[in-house]
Amino acid sequence: MESLNALLQGMGLMHLGAGQAIMLLVSLLLLWLAIAKKFEPLLLLPIGFGGLLSNIPEAGMALTALESLLAHHDAGQLAVIAAKLNCAPDVHAIKEALALALPSVQSQMENLAVDMGYTPGVLALFYKVAIGSGVAPLVIFMGVGAMTDFGPLLANPRTLLLGAAAQFGIFATVLGALTLNYFGLIAFTLPQAAAIGIIGGADGPTAIYLSG
């Protein structure tokens, strides 16, 4: 009986949280829309696949080395991290201290977690190398540009106005966000308003680049 209980506890499904279950269903829906319905496959397929990998229970593919350490809940290791951050040795207090810490301190804690034997997940590494550095959105731009067919535009130049309308939408959305901030309805910084404006222009990769 103990062996069976240990087997069940070792299964990922036993550690599946409600949030992970919801995100797994959403990811499967995105994959179905991309593959079966051919709806924005270049966008929804990688989002759905990444969502599946990120929410596999106990896999930790999207966790950094420090996040893996915190998820492990080892009292001795938490005490070492807490001593460096001058906070209580519990996960919640450490996370709050890290949120307020300088980037250099966060990097030191990450290196300390690596020294303790923890490694970042493959998705965390991908985020750091591709998205965190800003390389991935630029590669997306090149890919989209290489796939663009300008034949219909050259055949009917008046359709250029349709493309220009989206660009006017960018400025209108930025001004709208800043207006909401001016009247105190919703607080937006200028970079946030710019990211919202790019979304208004129907350009997701640019929004990712600006909001990062």
Automatic annotation (TrEMBL):
Q: Enumerate the UniProt keywords alphabetically.
A: Cell membrane, Membrane, Translocase, Transmembrane, Transmembrane helix
Give, as one word, the top-level EC class.
translocase
Question: Which GO BP terms sit in this record?
Answer: sodium ion transport
Record GO cellular component, one term: plasma membrane
Q: What is its EC number?
A: 7.2.4.2
Give the record's membrane topology.
Multi-pass membrane protein
The catalytic activity, as recorded, is:
oxaloacetate + 2 Na(+)(in) + H(+) = pyruvate + 2 Na(+)(out) + CO2
Annotated localization: Cell membrane
The protein, known as:
oxaloacetate decarboxylase (Na(+) extruding)
Main localisation: membrane
What Pfam families has UniProt attached to this entry? OAD_beta (PF03977)
- Family, per the entry? Belongs to the GcdB/MmdB/OadB family.
Subunit-level organization: Heterotrimer of an alpha, a beta and a gamma subunit.
The UniProt entry, under InterPro entries, shows: OadB_MmdB
Is Membrane a UniProt keyword of this protein?
yes
Q: Where are the transmembrane segments?
A: 12-35, 125-148, 160-183
Q: Which organism is it from?
A: Salmonella newport
Name its co-factor(s).
Answer: Na(+)
Q: Which PANTHER family match?
A: OXALOACETATE DECARBOXYLASE BETA CHAIN 2
Q: Which GO terms describe its molecular function?
A: decarboxylation-driven active transmembrane transporter activity; lyase activity
Q: What does this protein do?
A: Catalyzes the decarboxylation of oxaloacetate coupled to Na(+) translocation.
